[in-house]
Amino acid sequence: MMTRKRLVRGLLLGPLILAGAIQSASAEPPAPADEARAPAPPMRLFGGMGKEVKISPGEEKVLFERAGAGTLTHMWFGGDWPAWGDTRIRIYVDGEERPGIDMALFLGHGIGWGNDAAPWGTNRVGKTGRPSGVYNTYRIPFGKGVKVTATMAPSVRDPQVFWWIVRGLTDYPVRLGGITLPPSARLKLHRLDKVRAEPLKDVTIADTPARGLLYAVTFEAISDNFNYLEACLRAYPNGAKEPVWMSSGTEDYFLGTYYFNAGLYHNPVAGLTHCDPDRPGSSYRFSAYRFHEDDPVPFQEGLRLVWRNGEELDGHRYGDPKPTTLTSYVWTYEW
């Protein structure tokens, strides 16, 4: 029997904080009723695709490039080779030399440990084939231009055939839940790769000084038991010294329970994309995603997110966590 949580923590975002973020992110006040309003510019569709295009080992292949302003709204990828899920997708916005989004193909869509389960899908991410058919509808705004590239994993030694679709719109307002983001908002990925954490060690998975909103979180972890899932996720918005408690456990944050004992699930808010059995001889691996579109987490003067390997609260240690290796993807809209 696993250790049960004994404490209840308030999971509250102050209404003044949320109201401030919504006010800062909303559109400009409407013009007076008696003042003529200029019509909104028409949205224009743009996009591109690749069909059976060869990518060479070590090549950073440009999949799509466009100058000007707009928003990417859809990407789909297809292929079939060993380590296909480790293909690196990079998105350069507004002339960035270092991409603000640099993701492994599977983990960038919430899929860990190369799990090939399919078909499944939500409005934001999914995998429809075995293999292949990975898609997203992330809203990725840009002001001066955008470039999307792909590079195969270093272990791939031969050219491979790749398929892709990239599509978007001009003059498309980006909304997170009911909040309209300012034109300067940009989607950023904060990534940790294979960080080893000792028992009860705090791991900062994101730390930004900007203003913005948390968008999504993906975890991939492995250990010698599942007691690391006892960890409560902590948020420190605006330089706070005390945390806002984001969960009563790691599986709880991803909307699971009892160490994910019901198996894999995929829903619009959260999903469990891999989970080893909770029994002796297991590798105790899991991967999961969580979106915050309808569960806003705003910040005005920075945000720090902290995960702990296991948990200890008020002198009580929950279970016996072992050294754990964590990969985390934290997505934020910042401006």
UniProtKB/TrEMBL annotation:
Protein source organism: Aquisphaera giovannonii
Gene3D superfamilies from the UniProt entry: 2.60.120.1390
Which positions carry the signal peptide feature in this UniProt record? 1-27
> What keywords are annotated for this sequence in UniProt?
Signal
Q: Which InterPro entries match?
A: DUF2961
Q: What Pfam family is a match, any one?
A: DUF2961
- Protein name (record): DUF2961 domain-containing protein
